[in-house]
UniProtKB/TrEMBL annotation:
InterPro entries: Homeodomain-like_sf (IPR009057), HTH-type_TetR-like_transc_reg (IPR050109), HTH_TetR (IPR001647), Tet_transcr_reg_TetR-rel_C_sf (IPR036271), TetR_C (IPR011075). This is HTH tetR-type domain-containing protein. Keywords: DNA-binding, Transcription, Transcription regulation. One of its GO terms (molecular function) is DNA binding. It comes from Sphingopyxis macrogoltabida. PROSITE patterns: HTH_TETR_2. PANTHER family: HTH-TYPE TRANSCRIPTIONAL REPRESSOR SCO4008 (PTHR30328:SF54), TRANSCRIPTIONAL REPRESSOR (PTHR30328). Residues 18-78 form the HTH tetR-type domain.
Amino acid sequence: MDKDSGLTIKAARREERSASAEALLNATAQLLSEATTIDVSLNEISQRASVNSAMIKYYFGNKEGLLLAVLERDAETAMTALKALSEMDIPAQKKLKIHINGIINAYYRSPYINRLIHYMVESGSPAASKRVAQIFIEPMIEVYRDIVAQGVREGVLKDVDPGLLYYCLVGAADHIFHAGYSVPSTLGVAKLDDGIKQKYAEMVCDIYLRGLAP
């Protein structure tokens, strides 16, 4: 076998390994979205991904490593968008409205996110808990601090604590999806759809933008 053929085979194997890891991440996200807890077994994940369960240890070390990798992938997308929003040359109120819509859309697509964050912070190893804070919580509070400061300068927002704002917005954005089991009783429909999600986003925006006005 010549050198070029050997390099091609190695590249193909790397690509195959990468595809297997991505399949495991996708399967985990799908199962977490379907469940009401994070109690998803490694066997379920490997079956959904059509990947040998031994590969979870190979790629991620253990279940905690796999769950952390799912959150890191979600955080990369969400925090990049949030940072870009923070740097946009638009009014603070508009930034806040875009963000509220964005976070509700994120939880609609991936309803497990906040549940998994809580689990990793409360029950994960100290290293995992610290990592989750670094990739999700701290960046969000930093952006909230910037938006609030801009809004105060513009005279359109109260000078509120960014940490408390985090609890308010994340709690409001997450609960309707976290408590999806109650939707038939509260809303009279079998499950949430895009129309309900959008109406909810508009209501949350209206409540918070009015409430944060000086």
